[in-house]
Amino acid sequence: LALQLLNYARIYQRQERSVGIHRRCACESVRFYDILPDMIQFNVLTIHWQEARAAHSLNSTLLRPYQHAEILAALRQHGFWTPECFGDMNFHPVAAADSPNLVIAARRGL
């Protein structure tokens, strides 16, 4: 089993709201978080430019901020063993304050 999650500990610690701003032709996308006590709302504001006028739309979804220890406990409870944890898809060690992701690889015993 392989899981890739956002490093929610980092997001909460840094209070990171801005994810990114991208522009392609006449369309801009602004991705950002609203950090709530028990959830994180992920938002995408899309701006479509036509001549000098802008039209926009906002799409949002709630994310449950699963924590490292919580995921490991659930995996062990359901028969997974030897979970290995990494801080990114290049298999660097997890650093709660710095890693962008939490990547977990685990095996289930037969």
Mind explaining what this structure looks like?
With 110 residues, the chain is α+β, with helices and mostly antiparallel strands. It is built from two helices and seven strands; from the N terminus they run E-H-E-E-E-E-H-E-E. The protein has a four-stranded antiparallel β-sheet with strand order 2-3-4-5, with no helix packed on it.
Shape: elongated
Number of helices: 2
Main sheet strand line-up: 2-3-4-5
First-residue to last-residue Cα separation: 14 Å
What does the radius of gyration come to? 18 Å
The low-confidence parts are none
Secondary-structure-based class equals: alpha+beta
- Rounded mean pLDDT is 93
Q: Helicity level, as a percent range?
A: 10-25%
Oligomeric state of the chains? Answer: single chain
Beta-strand portion reads over 45%
SSE topology string: EHEEEEHEE
Overall number of strands:
7
Largest sheet: 4 strands, antiparallel
Keywords:
110 residues, alpha+beta, four-stranded antiparallel β-sheet, elongated
Write a concise synopsis of the structure shown.
The chain contains two helices and seven strands; from the N terminus they run βαββββαββ. It is of the alpha+beta class and 110 residues long.
List the helices and strands and how they pair.
Elements: E1 2-6, H1 8-14, E2 18-24, E3 27-35, E4 40-50, E5 53-63, H2 68-77, E6 80-86, E7 101-108
Antiparallel strand pairs: 1-7, 2-3, 3-4, 4-5, 6-7
